[in-house]
Design brief:
Elements lengths: L1 H23 L12 E5 L12 E3 L16 E2 L6 E4 L2 E13 L2 E7 L1 E8 L2 E8 L6 E9 L8 H4 L12 E7 L6 E7 L11 E5 L8 E7 L4 E5 L2 E6 L15 E9 L9 E12 L1
Parallel strand pairs: 3-6
Antiparallel strand pairs: 1-17, 2-7, 4-5, 5-6, 5-17, 7-16, 8-13, 8-17, 9-10, 9-16, 10-11, 11-12, 13-14, 14-15
């Protein structure tokens, strides 16, 4: 009987020590959440954007027009980008504008962030412009892209041609397909009109209401959501230079492109952004 009591006591003490050890040394989660804010813009200023955070990309590619048949100029004027009432206003306008020897009938803006990062959570609260032929996007390119006129290329980092550098489209919206928002990955495995790595969904009122667009980027996958609902996950089974150039630093781009099928009645519309926050 005494041996049974001794065995029971030792078993109890061992179990208690194991429980205390587990409490003191909890297992880390398989994937740590991104909770540390490392960069943001709340657009609380008035007038011009914060030049420490943003660069206006205006230089035309060779040939005098932007890729994809785009028919607008990108400018660094306040008419096309400004802060007011806590919002970024990135405005596409119908106007005759001459720049770099080229006359175009529409203007907009293309912003490059002066911040780069690898892995994290990007959260954007935004409202899309409206109009058939408008093509707003919030996206990312690798810091190493060889593209004359881009901020990081100007800084001497341009080494790799698109699409092999990698592109991450957090969101795109086409006015001719109102309320449908998509996300995509361009890389050596698929790009441009042949891109296969994409997904999206219809969201009512994207040009009338603000929605929260999120990208979460880890070593294993990229996940895209709108208002907390995931619409696309990119997680290639084989990661190589073609499928996964997403292991280095990327920067943000915001722009509105104007397509040739722009509504002739279009005059102007804005991409409005309440905030952009990046967590790691």
């Amino acid at each position: 009987m005494s041996l049974l009591i001794l065995f029971s006591l030792l078993a109890y003490q061992g179990n208690t020590l194991a429980q205390n050890s587990s409490k003191n040394n909890p297992k880390p989660p398989a994937e740590a959440p991104f909770t540390t804010l490392v960069w943001s813009d709340e657009f609380e200023g008035h007038g011009a954007l914060d030049a420490k955070k943003w660069f206006h990309q205006t230089q035309l590619p060779p040939g005098g027009s932007w890729f994809g048949g785009i028919i607008n100029h990108y400018t660094d004027r306040k008419e096309n980008t400004y802060q007011k009432n806590g919002l970024l206003h990135l405005v596409a306008k119908k106007e005759v504008f001459k720049d770099q020897g080229e006359v175009k009938n529409y203007t907009s803006a293309r912003l490059n962030s002066k911040f780069t990062f690898t892995y994290g959570r990007v959260e954007i609260k935004a409202k899309m412009p409206k109009g058939v032929g408008t093509w707003p996007a919030i996206w990312m390119l690798n810091k190493n892209i060889d593209e004359d006129g881009a901020y990081w290329d100007n800084e001497g980092f341009g080494k790799v041609k698109w699409p092999y550098c990698g592109e991450i489209d957090i969101l795109e919206h086409w006015g001719k397909n109102q309320d449908y928002v998509s996300s995509a990955l361009h890389n050596g495995s698929g790009y441009g009109g042949e891109v296969e790595n994409l997904g999206g969904r219809s969201v009512a009122g994207v040009s009338h209401q603000f929605h929260v667009y999120v990208m979460e980027w880890t070593q294993d996958k990229l996940e895209f959501s709108i208002d907390g609902v995931v619409h696309y996950v990119y997680e290639p089974p084989k990661k190589d230079s073609n499928t996964w150039p997403y292991d280095s630093e990327y920067y943000l781009i915001l722009n509105i492109a104007i397509e040739p099928d722009i509504d002739p009645e279009f005059t102007e519309s804005a991409l409005e952004v309440d905030y952009i926050r990046i967590y790691q």
